[in-house]
Design a protein that fits this description.
By secondary structure, the chain is of the alpha+beta class. The protein has 2 domains: 166 residues, no CATH class; 99 residues, no CATH class. 61% of the residues lie in helices and 15% in strands. It contains 9 helices and 8 strands. The strands form 3 sheets. The chain has a 4-stranded antiparallel β-sheet. The protein starts with a helix and ends with a helix. Bound molecules: zinc ion. The site of zinc ion has 8 residues, from loops.
Length: 274
């Protein structure tokens, strides 16, 4: 588990740096600073979520913290790329003018823009000059407001990436088989049988429940199970949902064992004569 978490973290850092650098490079052409950051965080969260699922690394807390930290890393990479591009632009302009020594010109640009050099130069660049905005321009709202906008962008990116990474761990995980639970819909039922179905679930009468739901029946109610794909006798979740339009509400969700599912499926099979 520790090894897989390390792998997920390393892969996540790679993705965050790549997406951050891309966002930093494209933002001056797009001209929508916060939107670019949000899109970057969205791509980051989805990718990290996919890595978490592929490397079978459960744990909502781990996913949330990792997503949040990577969101901050990506924003940092974006601002560092932005500074590198601004610096190279200053160097190009200096060498084009030919009237001055390019190195001295870049040093002067750095002194004017960043003050003292150092690892946090990208933060000073961002707060003093604002966000990249349309070709060659910057959205400069004053140092204090620039800092607030950058802070909000960072929090937004962290929150988006954390939520999406966490969502990847929402399914249960079978620790014995190291597999994510899969979901099967056992059948549907008309709304009229909701009381009977709820009673069957609460009294744990699986035969009765099996007779009430069928794959051939249409209806807003559905009964689904989430279980390990490889050890069908293990614990599972049984869920009763109601769909209204595009919205599905979970009416009941209970833990069941493999025997209960078997009993239910047998009674369904008897009903359909299979
Ligand atoms: Zn299992």
């Amino acid at each position: 588990m520790a090894t897989r978490r390390l792998l997920v973290t390393l892969a996540g850092i790679g993705v965050a740096l790549l997406l951050g650098a891309t966002a930093g490079a494209v933002s001056e052409f797009v001209g929508l600073p916060v939107v670019v950051t949000a899109a970057m965080a969205l791509a980051l969260g989805v990718t990290v979520g996919a890595i978490i699922r592929a490397l079978r690394t459960p744990g909502a807390l781990f996913a949330s913290v990792l997503g949040g930290v990577l969101g901050v890393v990506a924003v940092g990479a974006s601002a560092i790329t932005d500074l590198a591009l601004a610096r190279s632009k200053a160097a190009t302009e200096a060498s084009a003018s030919q009237s001055q020594d390019p190195d001295a010109a870049v040093r002067r640009w750095e002194a004017e823009t960043l003050g003292e050099p150092g690892a946090s130069a990208f933060l000073r660049h961002r707060t003093r000059r604002g966000a990249p905005w349309l070709t060659g321009r910057r959205l400069d709202l004053g140092t204090a407001t620039n800092a607030v906008v950058f802070g909000v962008e960072t929090l937004l990116a962290a929150a988006i990436a954390a939520l999406l990474a966490r969502r990847a761990t929402s399914r249960s995980f079978c620790a014995r088989c190291e597999a994510w639970f899969v979901r099967d819909t056992l059948g549907r039922a008309p709304l009229g049988s909701v009381a009977t179905i709820v009673a069957a679930i609460e009294q744990r009468e699986w035969h009765r429940l099996g007779r009430r739901v069928a794959t051939s029946t249409a209806g807003p109610l559905d009964v689904a199970v989430e279980h390990c794909p490889t050890c069908p006798s293990g614990s599972a979740w049984l869920e009763l949902g109601e769909t209204e339009g595009r919205r599905r509400t979970i009416l009941r969700r209970v833990a069941v064992d493999g025997a209960a599912l078997r009993e239910m499926r047998e009674s369904q099979a008897m009903r359909t004569g299979a």
